Amino acid sequence: MRTKICDNLGIAHPIVGFTPSEHVAAAISRAGGLGVLGCVRFNDADELDAVLDWMDENTDGRPYGVDVVMPAKIPTEGAAVDLQALIPPEHREFVQRTLADLGVPELADGEQQADGVLGWLHSVARSHVDVALRHPIRLIANALGSPPVDVIQQAHEHDVLVAALAGKAEHARRHVDNGVDIVVAQGHEAGGHTGEIATMVLVPEIVDAVGDRAPVLAAGGIGSGRQIAAALALGAGGAWLGSYWLTTSEYRQMPGNAATQQALLAAGSSDTVRSRIYTGKPARLLKTRWTDSWSADDAPEPLPMPLQNILVSEAHQRIMRSGDPGVVSMPVGQIVGRMNEVRPVADVIADLLAELDETITTLNKLR
């Protein structure tokens, strides 16, 4: 199954996969899709550079992309220590008390580090772009909408396409007006940052709004070939999948992910919650005792981005290292109800494509 998006990205199948794991991203690309590596976990540009070197060597010459977190409006930001000073003491006290109540152990000596915090800052996201453009990437995607216009122009000068996520048709129009090449229509069901409109409604709205100017990828609640077929029927040129890769065997290669996978495998489609506690912006997360604690009467209101990230960064590290599936903190979409076994990425894509082909064959028989 080839669509225009396949030609634009140089891929065999209309499947784009976002993931924080380089092992998953490389496997998606090797299987004929486009693996898109999330960069927000990298505080250090040299670390990202090294990982992209690894991607270059492990994608068999197939294209891949990166995903950054970059607001179009440049915020005023100081050094990390300045941002730390903006966090109210009562918020810190609540987090520490909650971790104690949940039985989450302290980090070992030497582990107190702000993993993934600086990646949410605009200046660091720009450094991610600079590093990525030194590699043979095909796509830069922005999780927060349109990147600044000068960043879009910078990507285009390197013959790199730019994608932006949109939760409304008006967002999609603005993205394309700014020079974005591909719009990712991400519905309410998606994991991570997500809007209010469901995928079934959102995709045709965005296709109608910008489809004559830019291809559209459908995202949110997609984890089967039937759903990819539905996305194509709605006018999308392919599917963007994020959550579905979290139960792949390649994802388990990241440290601390065994407990996360255990929690995801046991969850149903109703076991998620949309909250600002992860980043300060609404994001869909796996519902656990950690998310429940933020709904208690004594819980403070989440802080704005990036202060909430800084507030909970060490907590997320402690939770991950605790190995307790009952308290994991993980963005995931409602498709988690279909994520019931650990399989290699290649098998996942093969099944998606087989069901896509079967679905289209069945529909053709209805004529």
UniProtKB/TrEMBL annotation:
Give the matching SUPFAM superfamilies. Inosine monophosphate dehydrogenase (IMPDH) (SSF51412)
User: In the UniProt record, does the keyword Flavoprotein occur?
Assistant: yes
Which Pfam families does this chain map to?
NMO
- GO molecular function term, any single one: dioxygenase activity
The alphabetical list of record keywords is: Dioxygenase, Flavoprotein, FMN, Oxidoreductase
Q: Which PANTHER family match?
A: 2-NITROPROPANE DIOXYGENASE, MONOOXYGENASE RV1533-RELATED
What protein am I looking at? NAD(P)H-dependent flavin oxidoreductase YrpB, nitropropane dioxygenase family
- Output the lineage of the source organism: Bacteria, Bacillati, Actinomycetota, Actinomycetes, Pseudonocardiales
